[in-house]
Amino acid sequence: MKKILLLMLLLGLSAACQKPRERGPKPQPPVVAQAPDTVRFAAYNASLSRPESGQLITDLSTPNDPQARKIAEVLQRTRPQVVLINEFDFDPDGRAAELFKRNYLEVPQAPPPKDKEETPVPPIVYPYVYQPRVNAGEPTGLDLNRDGRAAGAADAHGWGEYPGHYGMLVLSQFPIDTLNTRAFRTLRWADMPGNLMPRDHYSEQAAATLRLSSKTHADVPILINGAAVHALISHPTPPVFDGPEDRNGKRNHDEIRLWADYISDDPARQTYLVDDAGEAGGLAPGAWFVILGDMNADPHDGDSVPGAIQQLLDHPRVVAVPTPAGRGGIADAQRDGAKSWGHRGRHMHDTADFPDTDGGPGNLRVDYALPGKPLRIQRGGVYWTTPREPWHDIIDASDHRLVFVDLLLPGVTPPAPPPPPGAKP
Questions:
Q1: Which of 92, 310, 387, 416 keeps 20 to 30 A from 22, CA to CA?
Q2: Which phi and psi angles does 86 have, rounded to 5°?
């Protein structure tokens, strides 16, 4: 009897020492259903950037690029009505965006259903596009990384091999108020009061020249049945690839802080905010907004400056719960092992599948869709499927996963989305 009791005690201790099993949301159907009377906003780092200028246009000029087809299928399955795509190279004529819409999004990518009970995955239409200029690859003419040369990707205002590298693209099924769009691409880092810039690393000229945004920060008003929802889009620099001065980590923190100041109810925090057109100030009190983007900061793990993303998650105007989740993050962390599985954050909330070896950070939550009050999240999700789901092979097109929220807009009934191409009126 004593042996049996001892065995039971040991088994109980073993179970107590194991990490609790994390239960994720239910498996997602072929097309992710949207909550009624809501608008679906999404952020997706699609990793569609190319190493050479103009290469993305070439790759998208035919409907045969394997990566673009998978990215398009993810969008067709999740069907966001407004989506920010990070890492989509900028070209001044918008040629790549038009090719992506015509050759990929407006063409069915999923195989046809095998039986009548399966739901087909139709193409998706985005009549409205916004693509801002970015700082990535924009030369400074200065030696920012102190390697003795004043040229190259690391010496640009934002890391990039050419101007427009790692760009940003907004696709919308609702009109975009382009006349009232604001961008803060040229705002200098030194202009932010109390910034974290490591001045011992930069020369006096560099400290006075370097822009805050590594790509851009833009306020893009989306008009939904007469109501404006401000999509606040950005892609802060990763808090790595630097030295003990932590210049990228500190810049990441301050890029995130820009939005915290922009939406603040305290005008004193907004006096330095002057957009590219010379207009000063932040977002008007009471304005509706959604912060979208790959913020490159996890609230619990990774290499970002402590508290970086909490500037938004704990902001009094931000609705941070319920947190979008996906079952695939749990399965992937279990498969990866110690690095990802040992993280403090919940795996179902992860949005990026980063390496666990060779100094990699493991899986992290870095992509966000954060609405502001009084908007409410009716439903959210991370499109990270599990290996058991038949469409699992499309998510490897990027090391990030699409994150979405279905938002209830008080007093607004969203119009129906446009029909798929070729649909009967």
A1: 310
A2: -85, 155
Write down the domain spans for the chain.
32-408
For CA atoms 278, 137, 360, 84, the dihedral sign is positive
Residue with tokens 């902001």: 315
Contacting residues for 174 by C-beta, under 8 A, at least 6 apart: 39, 81, 82, 128, 222, 223, 224, 415
- Helical residues (DSSP H) of 323-370, grouped into ranges: 327-336, 338-341
222: three-class secondary structure by DSSP:
strand
Contact 214, 237 (CB under 8 A): yes
Q: What is the dihedral of CA 290, 295, 301, 305, to 10 degrees?
A: -110
pLDDT surpassing 70 at residue 141: yes
Least confident of 8-22, 123-137, 140-154, 400-414: 8-22
Kind and range of the H or E run holding 367: strand 367-371
Residues 6 or more apart whose CB falls under 8 angstroms from that of 33 comprise: none
282-300 mean pLDDT: 97
Can you say whether the dihedral through the CA atoms of 95, 98, 100, 102 is positive or negative?
Answer: negative
For residues 154 and 156, give the distance between their C-alpha atoms in angstroms, rounded to a whole number. Answer: 6
CA nearest neighbour of 42 among 404, 419, 409, 406: 404
Q: Smallest Cα–Cα separation from 166: which of 44, 292, 48, 296?
A: 48
Q: What's 32-408's CATH class?
A: alpha beta
Q: How far apart are CA 291 and CA 278, in angstroms?
A: 22
Beta-sheet strand order (sheet of 218-224) = 182-183, 218-224, 227-234, 288-294, 367-371
CA angle 363, 368, 339 (to 5 degrees): 10
User: Of 86, 184, 168, which Cα lies nearest the Cα of 132?
Assistant: 168
* 289 membership: H or E segment, kind and range: strand 288-294
Cα–Cα distance list, 419 to 82, 217, 318, 415 (Å): 15, 31, 33, 12
pLDDT above 90 as % of the chain? 80
DSSP state of 191: G
Helices (H), 242-360: 247-262, 310-313, 327-336, 338-341
Mean pLDDT of the chain: 92
pLDDT in the model for residue 358: 77
Question: What is the value of pTM for the model shown?
Answer: 0.93
